[in-house]
Inverse folding.
């Protein structure tokens, strides 16, 4: 499963994200023509690539189920609602929408970002026993940029802890092809034209309270530290390789 995902991701930085709706179209054989048209552009909530309790004890099953089935679903619904009013954007890849959110209604920034960020987040994680370690060119780049993997984690954790209110911490490949750590508020991400630091995300951690409050209460720093135990380093390494290859 992990190798399959990593191989698939190697083709494109975002090919592993379950953001598109081809499967839904293929299944809509009993829908009316109008409903088939709708299904072609509507985004859907994909199942997690693991069970809700797979990330325990780092992230509890209750948090995962609420976060995926309620919070993420809300972003998918909000994005689809925004698209209903914008036929010109129906069928546009989400990354293209995010790259021009400054020109679009706020719902695209909030719900489009929310959908992209969460789909990316779920695929960034795996069971603690399967987490692995950074490999190849990615591991070399981390050491060259930060001095060590521990120092990269420390800077990432500081970015997450320092993000006032809700938001995300990111490890990205920036426009110069270098690794960089950044943070964004709310559901913004480094793909957006409104982001202060833009680039291709390699890892992102959700620092909204809904991501950690059941287990960690107000201790965001403890959550950030523990989260590395469930990072899927095979996926991150494949994303890095794709990003520096220009995909
Ligand atoms: Mn969230």
């Amino acid at each position: 499963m992990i190798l399959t995902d990593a191989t698939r991701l190697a083709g494109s930085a975002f090919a592993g994200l379950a953001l598109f709706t081809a499967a839904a179209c293929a299944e809509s054989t009993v829908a009316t023509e109008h409903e088939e048209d709708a299904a072609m552009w509507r985004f859907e909530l994909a199942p997690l690539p693991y069970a809700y309790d797979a990330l325990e004890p780092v992230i509890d099953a209750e948090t995962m189920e609420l976060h995926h089935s309620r919070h993420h679903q809300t972003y998918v619904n909000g994005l689809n609602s925004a698209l209903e009013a914008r036929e010109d954007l129906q069928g546009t890849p989400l990354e293209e929408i995010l790259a021009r959110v400054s020109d679009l209604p706020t719902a695209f920034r909030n719900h489009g970002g929310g959908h992209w960020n969460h789909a990316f987040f779920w695929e960034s994680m795996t069971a603690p026993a399967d987490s692995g370690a950074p490999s190849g060119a990615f591991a070399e780049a981390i050491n060259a940029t930060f001095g060590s993997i521990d120092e990269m984690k420390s800077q990432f954790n500081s970015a997450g802890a320092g993000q006032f209110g809700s938001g995300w911490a990111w490890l990205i490949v920036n426009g110069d092809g270098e690794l960089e750590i950044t943070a964004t508020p709310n559901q913004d991400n480094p793909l957006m034209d409104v982001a202060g630091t833009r680039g291709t995300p390699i890892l992102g951690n959700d620092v909204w309270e809904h991501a950690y409050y059941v287990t960690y209460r107000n201790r965001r720093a403890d959550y950030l530290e523990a989260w590395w135990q469930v990072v899927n380093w095979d996926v991150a390494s494949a994303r890095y390789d794709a990003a520096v290859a220009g995909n």
Q: What stands out?
A: Confidence is low (pLDDT under 50) at residues 1-16, 20-31. Residues 67, 71, 118, 206, 208, 210-211 surround manganese (III) ion (CB under 6 Å). The radius of gyration is 18 Å.
